[in-house]
């Protein structure tokens, strides 16, 4: 297996409010992908951050009676601190308003495109949705309203700078059809291709200073214009690599990377799969190699929103149920190609069934038997009867992760757990212990310990805390197990836990930010919970 160099990013959310569960989904998925690749020996750099320069932030600050800098700083801090509550292992965190690497990079990208003849000034009049920070054509609206926000867009008329997107139509089509840019799941790739083939239009890449309320990055050599927030935000992926100063990180992690991967929500697909690659092609830089698209979460059947009072704070949820339980729900139950409904009951049921009952029980009974029958010493031996199942585990997890189907990867782990539990029930070590079949008992115990260790390794990207507790329970790879204790608490009411709804679990006033809200897709019923019986997934053709 050859080592690859992989650069992985999340989208950077608007920070007009604190994080909600939709942001947690994207962060946890991306973290799990990065951890999985590291586990397989790849060199990985993981970037996340915040989009501070959005007009939405300015309007939210005005409404709250704060300066924009105060509001974005307070909210960005909450996003950054998710690395503790969600156990995220990112390498870098960029804030577009304060990070010194950002502005020079955005200006450099602008100048490179200008030098290619792709930036020009023109008069423009159009319908603008501040929620999306984008212009809409009249036929893209839903009875005159933004399809994402259901608000009436404002009519804007001004002279702006434009990017010559039309010039890249053929190159974009070739990039995608050749597989040099992979968009996953595939129905989103078809959507992007249809949009590109439908004919592209140049897009406005600056705003008057006045309309931007004086907030944002000034256009190079034109201080009366502020760079369009999407141009600015997309630039973060390379500004964080010191593209602005042509730094070593840019060479290493962009130019020389084997894979440049962006994980995004479906609402920002057009920006990432059309605008961004075209900007890079214009500037003479390599485009991303993969765009992985997730769907949205609904809560109790309704889309995440402040007005519905269901914008759950992921940090509060993690504090209540543990990072492992929250991560496991996000990774094992969220559908790869349809919106998924979150309820606290589903989170608890999934964690209890999979982590506490199936996996926790396997670990606990294995340790207990090694202590009872072998004085805590692990008998020598390999995976024995579980060898085939553990080989399949690795292959299945790899295939699922490559297809950006983390739910299937989690399912593969649980299949191995179930197989190991079945072995205990069928081999009945407690019966063997009362006979002279000592070698047989040794082989079973060795196979079970081997399986628990393999499973802990495979599940580390999903539930790093629980995986570490399992590793410790088996003596950190040594020959002696430690005294058996539960590795995962049961959360459900039958076990002393009280299940509270999102209103109570929530603290603070989280409301939708960009990862999901530029969203506001109509609420849909997602899979009703069980991985074993997922409801049919629909390949929704959303309007790009
Ligand atoms: Zn909108």
Rg: 25 Å
Helicity range of the residues?
40-55%
How widely separated are the two ends? 38 Å
> Judging from the principal axes of the Cα atoms, what is the shape?
elongated
Main pleated sheet: 6 strands, parallel
Notes on the structure:
- The chain is an alpha/beta fold and 544 residues long.
- The chain is 45% helix and 14% strand.
- It contains 21 helices and 16 strands.
- It has a six-stranded parallel sheet with strand order 3-2-1-12-13-7, sandwiched between helices.
- α2 crosses α3, α6 runs antiparallel to α7 and α16 packs antiparallel against α18.
- The longest helix is centred in the middle third of the chain and has 31 residues.
- The site of zinc ion has 6 residues, from loops.
Notable features of this structure?
four-stranded antiparallel beta sheet; six-stranded parallel beta sheet; elongated; disordered C terminus; 544 residues; alpha/beta; 14% strand; binds zinc ion; 45% helix; 21 helices
Could you give the topology of this structure?
Blueprint: E1 5-10, H1 21-39, E2 43-50, H2 55-64, H3 68-80, H4 82-85, E3 92-95, H5 102-115, E4 119-129, E5 134-136, E6 154-163, H6 169-177, E7 182-184, H7 186-197, E8 203-204, E9 206-208, E10 218-219, E11 222-227, H8 229-234, H9 236-239, H10 248-255, E12 259-265, H11 269-283, E13 290-294, E14 297-299, E15 302-303, H12 314-321, H13 323-332, E16 340-342, H14 344-374, H15 387-402, H16 406-427, H17 429-432, H18 438-459, H19 464-473, H20 502-505, H21 514-517
Parallel strand pairs: 1-2, 1-12, 2-3, 7-13, 12-13, 14-16
Antiparallel strand pairs: 4-5, 4-6, 6-8, 9-11, 10-11, 14-15
Helix pairs in contact: 2-3, 5-11, 6-7, 12-13, 13-14, 14-16, 14-18, 15-16, 15-18, 16-18, 18-19
This protein binds zinc ion.
The site of zinc ion (ZN) has 6 residues, from loops.
């Amino acid at each position: 297996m050859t080592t690859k160099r992989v650069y992985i990013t999340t989208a950077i959310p608007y920070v007009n409010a604190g994080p909600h569960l939709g942001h947690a989904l994207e962060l946890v998925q991306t973290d799990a992908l990065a951890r999985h690749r590291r586990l397989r020996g790849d060199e990985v750099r993981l970037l996340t951050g915040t989009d501070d320069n959005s007009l939405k932030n300015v309007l939210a600050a005005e409404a709250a009676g704060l300066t924009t800098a105060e509001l974005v700083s307070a909210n960005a801090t909450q996003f950054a601190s998710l690395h503790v509550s969600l156990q995220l292992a990112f390498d870098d965190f960029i804030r577009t308003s304060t990070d010194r690497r950002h502005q020079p990079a955005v200006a450099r990208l602008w100048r490179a495109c200008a030098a290619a003849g792709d930036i020009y000034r023109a008069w423009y009049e159009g319908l603008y949705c501040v929620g999306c920070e984008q212009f809409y054509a009249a036929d893209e609206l839903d009875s005159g309203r933004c399809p994402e926000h259901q608000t009436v867009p404002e009519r804007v008329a001004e002279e702006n700078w434009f990017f010559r997107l039309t010039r890249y139509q053929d190159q974009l089509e070739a990039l995608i059809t050749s597989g040099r840019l992979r968009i996953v799941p595939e129905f989103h790739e078809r959507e992007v291709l249809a949009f590109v083939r439908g004919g592209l239009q140049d897009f406005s890449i600056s705003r008057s200073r006045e309309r931007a309320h004086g907030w944002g990055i000034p256009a190079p050599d034109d201080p009366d214009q502020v760079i369009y927030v999407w141009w600015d935000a997309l630039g973060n992926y390379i500004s964080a690599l010191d593209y602005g100063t042509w730094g070593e990180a840019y060479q290493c992690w962009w130019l020389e990377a084997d894979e440049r991967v962006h994980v995004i929500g479906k609402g920002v697909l057009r920006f990432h799969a059309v605008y961004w690659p075209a900007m890079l092609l214009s500037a003479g830089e390599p485009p991303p190699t993969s765009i992985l698209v997730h769907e949205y979460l609904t809560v109790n059947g309704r889309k995440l929103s402040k007005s519905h009072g269901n914008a759950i704070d992921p940090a509060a949820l993690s504090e209540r149920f543990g990072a492992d339980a929250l991560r496991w729900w996000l990774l094992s139950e969220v559908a790869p190609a349809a919106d998924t409904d979150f309820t606290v009951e589903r989170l608890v049921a999934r964690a209890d069934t999979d982590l506490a009952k199936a996996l926790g029980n396997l670990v606990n009974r294995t340790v207990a038997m090694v202590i009872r029958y072998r004085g805590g010493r692990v008998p020598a031996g390999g995976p024995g009867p579980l060898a085939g199942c553990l080989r399949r585990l690795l292959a299945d997890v790899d295939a699922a992760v490559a297809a950006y189907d983390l739910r299937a990867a989690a399912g593969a782990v649980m299949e191995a757990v179930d197989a190991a539990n079945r072995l205990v029930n069928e081999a009945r070590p407690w019966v063997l212990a009362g006979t002279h079949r000592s070698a047989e008992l040794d082989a079973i115990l060795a196979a079970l310990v081997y399986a628990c260790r393999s499973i802990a390794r495979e599940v580390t990207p999903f539930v790093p805390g629980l995986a570490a507790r399992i590793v410790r329970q088996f003596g950190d790879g040594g020959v002696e197990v430690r005294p058996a204790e539960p590795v995962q608490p049961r959360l459900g009411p039958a076990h002393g836990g009280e299940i509270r709804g999102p209103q109570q679990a929530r603290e603070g006033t989280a409301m939708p930010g960009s990862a999901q809200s530029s969203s506001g897709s109509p609420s849909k019923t997602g899979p009703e919970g069980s991985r074993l019986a997922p409801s049919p997934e629909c390949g929704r053709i959303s309007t790009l």
